[in-house]
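=== RUN LOG ===
request id: a7f3
mode: sequence -> structure
chains: 1
length: 92
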Amino acid sequence: MKLEIQEEARLELREALIWYEEQKTGLASELLFEIRKSISEIINFSTRNKITFNNRREAFVNRFPYKIVYAIEENDSVICVYAFFHKQKSKK
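=== RESULT ===
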């Protein structure tokens, strides 16, 4: 499957990485590692996560309070990531 990450999601991820690196050197790398693991699981098991809204699904990131919002598109050939949401911020 092809993976596409929307620009807004890229910006959210970039902001999170900057924030975590400011908190502790190396923490951004740990977040990125966990996000890559989550994306790998999404690619391999794309329908595992239930549909929540607008045909989108949510996958949680281990060790960090983030979820990845994505959809399976184009006849099940593309996974489109729409957001990297901080769980606390997304409740607002």
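=== NOTES ===
The chain has one domain: 2-90.
The radius of gyration is 13 Å.
=== END ===
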